[in-house]
């Protein structure tokens, strides 16, 4: 196929502690690859980067394995409140919803808000919008997440956050940071990023996630980034714009990732990010044990599931 620009795609299903076993790796790999295949086909058929980001986020939200949409973690009061955002790199427009409940796909609301004069809505306003759009009420709760919350309640909330992958036994320890994200480059060279989360789990009511802030999801015509990890760490690093602005100012994506993750590591942050630039470079970075990312470079699918524990980045162009 003779494409103006070869599309690129990278997605993530969170960052956190090591995947427990080969079985755990394979479950997550299959889930991520299925989504990469469908969304990359969309890009090849001419879908915009923004459409691809939305579709990828919907699929990740619908997979109860990941902490967003169905399978979201519960907050300290036992309620699910989700946050999502979408940024179109070409128009440089950011939109999002914060702490929205009872909707299947928070990313759909972020997509609607792309063309609204009020582009980031929080809890009550987001609920009003869902009602106006006649979005059917949907219960994102899964039995595993409920059991996790009940167990934690018995321990009087001694965990700092919930599991990133909602399949018991897939991950090793109890400190996990769940988010999903998609970054796409389309055949017209346009970039977009989408990010969605159920939050940290067990957090105070009203806590605001990075996932619906530019800190966690940012794109220009030069580069696009979706973040995962502890929201407070991502906000403190202003992670996504830090990488994107470095690229806009002339740094290569590889250098921007290396510098940004060296700084984050020095500050003892617990986070990860996926990124693309307008020239088709694909990148991921982490200070956490693992980042659950998969990508399509135009020729093949790859992933980051078995990268050794510790700060690392990858950046390549096919
Ligand atoms: N990065 C997801 C959160 O902390 O809410």
* Radius of gyration based on Cα positions: 18 Å
The CA-CA distance between the termini, in Å, is: 16 Å
Per CATH, the class reads: Alpha Beta
Query: Residue share in helices?
Result: 25-40%
The biggest sheet amounts to: 8 strands, mixed
Structure summarized in a few sentences:
This protein has 318 residues and is α+β, with helices and mostly antiparallel strands. Helices cover 31% and strands 24% of the residues.
Can you give a write-up of this model?
With 318 residues, this protein is an alpha+beta fold. The protein has a single domain (8-316), classed as Glutamine Phosphoribosylpyrophosphate, subunit 1, domain 1 (4-Layer Sandwich). The protein is 31% helix and 24% strand. It is built from eight helices and 13 strands. The chain has helices spanning 22-44, 49-62, 106-113, 123-132, 143-154, 231-237, 239-248, 253-266, and strands at 8-16, 82-88, 93-100, 120-121, 180-185, 191-197, 217-219, 223-229, 271-277, 282-286, 290-296, 301-303, 312-316. The strands form two sheets. It has an eight-stranded mixed beta sheet with strand order 4-3-2-6-5-1-11-12. The protein has a five-stranded antiparallel beta sheet with strand order 7-8-9-10-13. 56% of the residues are buried. The model is unreliable at 172-176 (pLDDT under 50). Bound molecules: glycine. Glycine is lined by residues 177, 179, 197, 199-200, 209-211, 228-231, 234.
